[in-house]
């Protein structure tokens, strides 16, 4: 009897070993549901070296004869041309970089994708993700999912995730904060919004078109911090539930009352506070504090005076507001004949060394954690200020219904700035948003 039991145990052991030996290697799996094996991959340095990229990704085997096409807008081409050469030399995979802006990419995916003519790797802003997923244009970031979640800013990861599935390989983040003229204003004058108002009262000279503070007044993208600072919100459930709109709740109304009070220091029509107007005033030294996007860091780095950048300050209620963040990322095309090679490339161009090179060539602020300690970034005070603002930012809603928000809110902001009742105006705007959403779903 003991011999029989021993024989059965040995048979079971052999079967277990046989099944383990026959299990598929992760390197050849491209299914979205496959859980990645993170052992012996990123290591302690998180795969931060381009030259050592194959140490991170040697389990993912490119398809035989792989060759890639990558699309990006004009501003991203210089870096991609350089990094594509390195990738091709290391992996013997030809890479062709083509200029295509994001709107053109989305259009061409509808026609060139099924025809087999589309790019293997796309570069898109995160608010295109819903359309890309609905159209079946992009594959999940499955193989490098765990590394991406650990190594990149949470806001960036959330931005390139749809319905719980990670799709993008984050490249850079964009948001806005306060540029200021260091010859005109002290950083201590930017400690709170009340401080900004107090400074502007003493600095303004309207007849000479000299202003303490200016922002785009009728653009909800830039006005969102007033809402977030008073617990207003766009959509519920982390901006995924269009049935729950918080733009006319009690907090939003309080936010717009404070926003409305700032006309004292900016006595002009909302439509007149354009990007061109305030940029010119800032460059001429007639505007001390300019709420604007991080994409202007390069433009404001070579002025006759030294400019700084700091995060948005707290409101009178003590709350520090969140700004909207935009995230651009690489995506692997669902039509690619070489998905493994494309995933390998998307990972390669988002290592720490690659993103640092990209920053130095283009000024794109990396979405990767820990890069604020890189000398090229650390020594640029405006970039450091932008990175601090990223810590108080949320990904701009990317669901389809967000497109119904912009126009009604722009109109509401103009009316409130003119002095209309905030509650009544916001109620009307939300009603228009709901009608637009209902029409969208018909």
UniProtKB/TrEMBL annotation:
Residues covered by region (Disordered): 27-49
Signal peptide: 1-20
InterPro entries on file: SBP (IPR006059)
Lineage top rank: taxon: Bacteria
Signal among keywords: yes
Keyword field: Signal, Transport
Composition bias type Polar residues, residue spans: 27-40
Family: Belongs to the bacterial solute-binding protein 1 family.
Name of the protein in its database record: Maltose ABC transporter substrate-binding protein
Native species: Paenibacillus haidiansis
Lineage: Bacteria, Bacillati, Bacillota, Bacilli, Bacillales
